[in-house]
Amino acid sequence: MAINVAAPSSRGKRDLLSIMDLSSADLASIYDHAFHLKEAWAERRLSHVLRGATLAMIFEKASLRTRSTFEIGIYQLGGMAIDLSNLNIGMGTRESVADIARNLDRWCDIVMIRTFGQDRAETVARECKAPVINALTDQEHPCQALGDMMTLMSVTGSRDLTGFPLAYVGDGNNVCHSLICAAALLGMDMRVASPDTYSPNSTYVKWAQGQARRTGGKLTITSDPNEAVSGAKAVYTDIWASMGQEHEHTERARVFLPYQVNRRLMDAAAEGAFAMHDLPARRGEEITDEVIDGPTSIVLPQAEHRLHIQKGIMTWLAEMARITAYR
Questions:
Q1: What's this model's pTM, rounded to 2 decimal places?
Q2: For 93-116, what is the mean pLDDT?
């Protein structure tokens, strides 16, 4: 076997379960990999650094972008993916989470899980020697947030986002948790506007505030969307009722109506502010067609950068775990 990735760290196997697992130096390394692979992709060069590697993809939640970008990404790195829906493996019912993880560890080089509780992802990571990637839980969505920051780096032409004012308007959910933590590591000026009873979890807020003090960033939590977007160079929103919360849709639609990202709200942001959404979107609810399809929308670049960041994450984890390409 030949090592085709950068010289491995001595830190051993790493997982990506939470942005809080990462340091600013880790982010820089992930983005080094991701931007290098994006350049290769643009030139139609495949970087087979993980030739022969196998990615297990566990899906307990539906997916378009996560499924597509991980499967395409591992293929472009020279490996292959196996798609494990809960219909087939019965995680926690047909077979325990730990037993599934122990089996996958015997066959696969990397494991990706998209599930409900964070505890499931943590159990898989604990039982696997292979690196494990959180591809969404009810608590966090680290891959999305890392891809979003890469999108901002790309559209602004700078990997330095220090002081960049980003407003998030809506539910203080898993995406919001990962965004505020990533923004803190990057020294950004992050603002979150949510109804008081839907604010982000205090654990993430406290961690992000601590990191922001170290990096020179800032985190503001408010219930006023106009305060959050004032002077912001990007305005981000997400669906009001996430997967598993559909029964709350009617009540959430009523509570969140003042937080809709529409032309009026975008006019309160900086001139030319980017509009962001992680998709899927409920058009006419959290965001209007005029904004999501408008000239400053970077929603599709966000979707594209999911491919680049997934490859960056996989190669970074492979480097840490000393995963090598097959001869």
A1: 0.93
A2: 94
